[in-house]
Amino acid sequence: MDTKERIIIESLKLFMRFGIRSITMDTIAESLGISKRTVYELFKNKDELLESCIVSRMIEEEKNNAEIMKNSANIIEAFLTHIKRSINLMSSISPMFFHDARKYHPEVFRCKGKEREEKDYDMIVEYINTGKQEGFIRQEINVDIIAKLMKEQFKIIGNDELFPPDHYSKSEIFENIAINFIRGIATDEGLKIINKFEF
């Protein structure tokens, strides 16, 4: 693992645990036992570092999704496993991470958020089409509409006015959206799998 990759991995871990604003380039350098100059030679500022962290996380999520698809017995199991992993990930992230990203790094958050939404849309379409072929997702639903509805519902997770962080965890909001959504588009056979799945 080269120095740049080490910085990205350690920074993402610190950002997710403590938020972005409280973690300085000095903090990251000290945590890795390297000089601040080394960090700045590879990343000109925190925006650039944060963007690299988000890209790294998105690549990791794509790998995880491919692994889930490969190892699942059917698309409902894949859907639910993906949901379970997402819930566990969100439970480990400080609410300050999202707050700081929106408030102090809006351009990075907006740009990478849009890219993430596009990837989520493609993944949902793939899952639904596969589910239709397997007979676990209802045939009559409009895939494009359902994928867009699901994507828009996930945006609500970041609405701190609707769901104040001191009253609702993002993992709980995500779980309620995702589980109820998949139950709504599943066939009777799909519901049987959902009802047996353990979170």
Description:
- By secondary structure, this protein is an all-alpha fold.
- The chain has a domain at 58-196: Tetracycline Repressor, domain 2 (Orthogonal Bundle), CATH 1.10.357.
- 76% of the residues lie in helices and 0% in strands.
- The chain has ten helices and no strands.
- It has helices spanning 3-18, 25-32, 36-42, 46-71, 75-91, 95-104, 106-134, 143-155, 170-185, 188-196.
- The mean pLDDT is 94.
Q: Under the CATH scheme, which class of the domain at 58-196?
A: Mainly Alpha
How many distinct helices? 10
CATH topology of the domain at 58-196: Tetracycline Repressor, domain 2
Note poorly predicted spans.
none
The CATH superfamily of the domain at 58-196 appears as Tetracycline Repressor, domain 2
Give the DSSP E fraction (strand runs of 2 or more residues). Answer: under 5%
| Strands, total number | 0
Structural class: mainly alpha
Main pleated-sheet profile = none
**Rough shape?**
elongated
Helix-residue proportion: over 70%
Order of helices and strands: HHHHHHHHHH
Radius of gyration: 19 Å
The CATH architecture of the domain at 58-196 would be: Orthogonal Bundle
Distance between the termini: 34 Å
Average pLDDT metric:
94
